[in-house]
Amino acid sequence: MKDKDRQEKIQENLKKWREGPFSKFQQRGWSEAYTSYREPVKEIYTPLDAPDEEYLDKSGFPGQYPFVRGVYPTMYRGRPWTMRQYAGFASAEESNRRYRYLLEQGQTGLSVAFDLPTQIGMDSDHPLADGEVGKVGVPIDSLADMEVLFDQIPLDKVSTSMTINSPAAVLLAMYIALAEKQGVAPEKLKGTIQNDILKEYFARGTYIFPPGPSLRLITDIFAYCSKELPNWNTISISGYHIREAGANAVQELAFTLADGIAYVKAALEAGLKVDEFAPRLSFFFNAQMNLLEEVAKFRAARRLWARIMEEKFGAENPKSKMLRFHTQTAGASLTAQQAKNNIVRVTIQALAAVLGGTQSLHTNSYDEAWALPSEESVRIALRTQQIIAHESGATSTVDPLGGSYYVESLTDDIEKRVEEYLEKIEEMGGMVKAIEKGYVQREIQKSAYEMQKRIEREEDVVVGVNRFAHEEAAPDDLLEVDPEMEKEQIKKLEKARKNRDEKEVKEALEQLKKTAQEEENLMPAIIEAVKAYATLGEICDVLRSIYGEYQAPTF
Amino acid sequence: MSKQASHLARGIIQGKEKALAKGLTMVENRNDGYRELLDEIYSEVKNCPIWGLTGAPGVGKSTITNYLVDSLAKSGERIGVIAVDPTSPFSGGAILGDRVRMMDLAGKEGIFIRSMASRGALGGLSPAIMDAVSLYQAFGVDRILVETVGVGQSETDIVALADTVTVIMMPGTGDDVQTIKAGLLEIGNIFVVNKADLQGAETLTGLLQSMLSSKNSPDDWAPPVLKLIASTGQNLDKLLGEMHRHQDFLKKSNQREEKEKMRNEMALKMHLQARFQDLFLGPLLGTSEWEQAVKSIGRRERSPAYWAEKMITGSD
Amino acid sequence: MAQNKIRVLIAKPGLDGHDRGAKVLAQALRDAGMEVIYTGLRRTPDQIVSAAIQEDVQVVGLSSLSGAHNNLFQKVANLLQEKGYEDVLLIGGGIIPEKDRKQLEKAGFDRIFSPGTSTEDIVEYIKDKVNE
């Protein structure tokens, strides 16, 4: 039978089925179903939704353009994903102890969580830092803290991921300065900085400077690393926080890719060549509850990025077109009620990430709706990944859901809707303008509010919250941060300020100020300043004095 | 005499912040005693310049207000700010977000900021805003800044309220011939094109200038058009300069008194309207005659105009 | 005619940038007919209390997910008391362990809401308490 005849035949039989057995049973019971972006899900998907003749063009093979089926030919049969648990401890000493323990256990990748003052470029004694020091991660005020954080850890032997955005250049400069002290050449350094400022303006909130100067800092990092740190991932373009802020799957993907496009454009405008920096771009997504939709989202992301890089930016290096990504399970899906149910939620989400072809994964701990995770809950989260990797069989073949009529159809649908968003943002003059106009914020806010209302109307079920609820005691074995920690950190900061050569600091900061007013790459001046033990707050204040601070749009 | 009103009036005159805050609530809510309160403070009301800022949502009003308040306060002035946001016609509630931009000023000596919803005033200024100005003036501020969303009625209301009106626009939000025609040209003493680094800023500025130059200016004041970038502070000092210049102009040309008279008339009119409503409309609502009229109008027997006349005068 | 409206201040003390919950709640309160003053991110206890006093709100709602609640929430409660403003309805929400919730409720907070509380419940709670 020819393709066309076969399709007609399917069409005909589908109609018969719909009018016959389906409609008869539908009267006995039927419920509506929607995607996260509120599109109705059909009662059945067939080859009509994912025709074979489109296979070579739309899917192809793993490791080949457009990478829908995966970025590497062998995927998990060749090497499992990296199990990378993001963790922050209240002090550099404590974090260092934990890192060394993990390295002794055979781990090679570190993931550093910084506290909020560090993420916002404030020293620990800043008035606004009051109560926040060491709370969600490690405080770093100067190179002195960095020396403690990586004490006895050879920087040429580990790969370090740092969740740092607005002041990413300063933390990277400290890492480079520390490597020099250890006698490690910059080209040997491996790791990632998040360095994704745009999402901070509308989803995560740790912004400092306005978009223009922020983009300059980012492209300066791209340029510097392409020459000096070729093995460094210069950015992790993050949809995770966008989803957490209330976006649906399409918005998560659309706004992340729009951010990515803005970075590529900024780098090209700064005179870089696309194949010089694009292979070092990486992504970071959320894994939410809707298993199959999430898998489709990851697949669509790869195809979209490959096409954008090839068609829009003329990338030639296949690595420039590969969307490599880290995944974290959805923090916002964790419930405080019946907290242990979260273990099951995380399992489903982690499975979505694996079936979607993630390169690395963080699984949340079940008690995170109450506090920072305890040691036991972190262990269960890690074991969840290990069970999926070693027991579930989900890793046995590449992209096992490829060819599912439903998943293929969802992949196409998400792709189409993301393209519509991207066009709209382009019409507004790009992502920076869309953020400044408050458009992105409003779209997300609308989704978040509607989602909350659906839960309250019980249209969306959250087990243990609006259905199947029962009274229970809250967990009590939670992690606590010692409030004395903050005072100790401030003492350390004062000591570091006392032990340095003030003249050297002043000169380095003057030089930085001069560079910031001109067009030269900022990285060398920042590296000189951190070497003189200028603090993070001092360095950022110099930049604030030139660039000003970002003002969020009113509500 | 309401004891609470008396107590608040004394506190306001003595410059107590908490009394002012509570007094503002009393007049805004039209709670018992608000008339006594207004009357009791009235002899202590001292005239001061009132600057109005108006523009569509998102043009940067709050950022500009924030700058103005900060610089004026630094020169030693006591400043009162009223930031008006629209009330939702569906729920009657409102989100008052202007403080987001002014939080750095909160708690600074000599700066008092109050957010007010437009409430029933159909997009315009609620009568309570007039009264709020009086409370500020009895409390003793050197200057009042009123920030309103430039939609509909409030544009004309702000003229009656403020001595100097600054109209803020930005490129690319439909601030074009259409909206300019809608009356903005008539009300502005100063025009601002904010976000002047955006595309279309030149066009908008040019358009404004040409439209303003073709307009007769009966009062010899040629409204300036200023380009600025509020987020970086560029040209904000110039705006402040122009506002002061307009204030001097009003003084020299004796127009301050005129403005003052207009404001007093407006306040009287608003209070009369409110009283008429209380006295005449209130008692009619829901009466049997009311119900009869509504039915009759529904059946197309007689018009609302007929019924209104009949209910007031008793005759056909 | 009196036109009373419930006025609420929703504030984010500290450096936490997660404002999804605060914004969703602000919108829900607006839709329930209240006037909501939103402060935006990165506010100090001083700024929050000063705004609450000038705006003469009946309700102050704080949100924090960074673990800094014990320190910052407590400071807001203390400052409100110091300034003679203890009659305000003081509520909070975020990632707050049970132990801290109990402690804050002893120290001046009327109620700390746990994650997953419906906005409707909060609206009802506020209406009940304010009209008491």
Structure overview:
The complex is a heterotrimer of chains A (555), B (316) and C (132). With 555 residues, chain A is an alpha/beta fold. Chain A has one domain: TIM Barrel, CATH 3.20.20.240. In chain A, 51% of the residues lie in helices and 7% in strands. Chain A is built from 23 helices and nine strands. In chain A, the strands form two sheets. In chain A, strands 1-9-8-7-6 form a five-stranded parallel β-sheet. Chain A has a four-stranded parallel β-sheet with strand order 2-3-4-5. The mean pLDDT of chain A is 93. By secondary structure, chain B is α/β, with parallel strands linked by helices. Chain B has three domains: 1-43, no CATH class; 45-256, Rossmann fold, CATH 3.40.50.300; 269-313, no CATH class. Helix content of chain B is 52%, strand content 14%. Chain B has helices at residues 3-13, 17-29, 34-42, 61-74, 99-102, 127-139, 154-161, 177-187, 201-213, 236-252, 255-284, 288-298, 304-313; strands spanning 50-55, 79-85, 94-96, 111-117, 143-149, 164-169, 190-193, 225-227. Chain B has a seven-stranded parallel β-sheet, sandwiched between helices. In chain B, β7 (190-193), α9 (201-213) and β8 form a beta-alpha-beta unit. In chain B, α1 (3-13) runs parallel beside α3 and α2 (17-29) runs antiparallel to α6. The radius of gyration of chain B is 22 Å and the shape is globular. Chain C is of the alpha/beta class and 132 residues long. In chain C, strands 2-1-3-4-5 form a five-stranded parallel β-sheet, with helices on both faces. The longest helix of chain C has 14 residues, at 69-82. Chain C has one domain (7-130): Cobalamin-binding domain (Rossmann fold, 3-Layer(aba) Sandwich). At the A-C interface, α5 and α19 of A face α1 and α3 of C.
